[in-house]
Amino acid sequence: MILNESISLNELEDKVIFHIDFDYFYAQCEELRKPELRNIPCVVCVYSGRDEDSGVVSTCNYNARKYGVKAAMPIKLAKSKLKDVEAKFLPTDMPYYQDISRDVMRIIQNYGDLFEQVSVDECYVDFTRVTNSDFNDAKIFASSLQKNIKHQSKLTCSIGVGPNKLISKIASAVIKPNGITVVSREEAKNFISNCKIEDIPGVGPKTLKKLQALGINSISDISKNSIFELRDVLGYKTAAFLVNASNAIDNSQIKARETSKQFGKIVTLKKDTVEMEQINMTTASLCTTIYENLSNKKQAFKVLTIILILENLHHVSISRSLKLYTASFDELQKNSLSIIKEMIKNNSISIQNIRRMGIVVSELKDISGQNSLLNYLDN
Ligand code: DGT
Ligand code: CA
Ligand code: CA
What we know:
Blueprint: E1 2-3, E2 17-22, H1 25-33, E3 42-47, E4 55-60, H2 62-65, H3 75-81, E5 88-91, H4 94-109, E6 114-119, E7 122-126, H5 135-153, E8 157-162, H6 165-172, E9 180-182, H7 188-193, H8 205-213, H9 219-223, H10 227-234, H11 236-246, E10 262-273, H12 276-297, E11 299-310, E12 315-326, H13 329-345, H14 347-350, E13 354-362, E14 365-366
Parallel strand pairs: 1-10, 3-5, 8-9
Antiparallel strand pairs: 2-7, 2-8, 3-4, 6-7, 10-13, 11-12, 11-13, 11-14
This protein binds 2'-deoxyguanosine-5'-triphosphate and calcium ion (2 copies).
């Protein structure tokens, strides 16, 4: 994961949170390996095995959705809806989807400050810093990120941007597939007031019924109540969550989980620049932090990734696999600089100043048994 910068993100109130959800995920993964499926309805099924068509639809592509097929529908019903068209029904292949999920989440987590994966196909990322808390910049950045993800993974996703997790999560479902919905801090209250109660994640039929019994039928209705008025019926926790949600307030934090597979750091330069002096200094500082981490964890790395976010908020990243594992500071710095220079030489960057720079090491190997960490394959 990306390590935090020295100021804790909690100190920044004006957060910009992205919720990224991949479109028709299992079915899109199937299209990736069988491109001919793109042009026909494709339905991914969980077969129960009782008889040939028993089981339910797990998901389907948007071609199939046009015929009314959707998740959790009995396979027999889905087949009847598609009886007159050429369509493909496939069983789920979880290991394959998980592989794709891992690769694509790795791409995303490289760019943000805090990253939390919440399911196989969705995650939250804190982009407060990269966007300077500016929702206009967030819109540009979301579009660039979406293109970048598509370019690297060949998958489309829908992105919701908001001042907290709740708003970004609801926003990501507004325009799908391949959509972007940005809800600024100022727009959040109005946005949520126009949503249905059941759009709030976690609200199920039971809660809806209880609210209806109180004469509460909309999010605006909820916001007119206090937590104390609702807690007897809903319990304090749900009442507090819903009253806050109805006012577009959500204080839940992004729970960044440490992954042992990679780590790194991304920082904002003092000013947007391509001056080598500034870049050398930043590289040295990033490499020092990463080197300290490698030393503490007694690990060597083999793959080095440089991430540059440019002043127009476009990003470029290059990964290079070294010939050997290394835990050497000099190797880390030398290779980082050589990749960065290569990236700057590239025309599109030389005319664009760099705003943020990140270095990530991956393909880590435990070397705690080695006699000397410093000398480990240090050549
Ligand atoms: P989307 O996001 O509306 O474009 O479509 P999906 O398919 O990505 O839907 P999502 O994000 O709710 O779920 C992600 C994956 O989880 C989906 O590709 C398949 C699986 N999944 C979703 N709903 C169900 C379900 O009701 N039953 C089963 N077995 N799997 C499901
Ligand atoms: Ca999805
Ligand atoms: Ca999802």
